[in-house]
Amino acid sequence: MAVQPTWNYLCENELQYGILSTYDYHWFLYKPKNAPSELYISEALSLESKCPVVLMAYAYMAWKAVNDCHSRYPSIILTQPAKNRQVLDELLKEIKAYNDLADIQGKYIPKLRANALEALREIHKHGILHDDIRAENILVSNQDDVYIIDFGMSNRADIKKKRKWYQDEMTQLSCLLDQYTRCSGP
Question: Which segments cross the bilayer (predicted)?
Answer without folding.
Answer: none
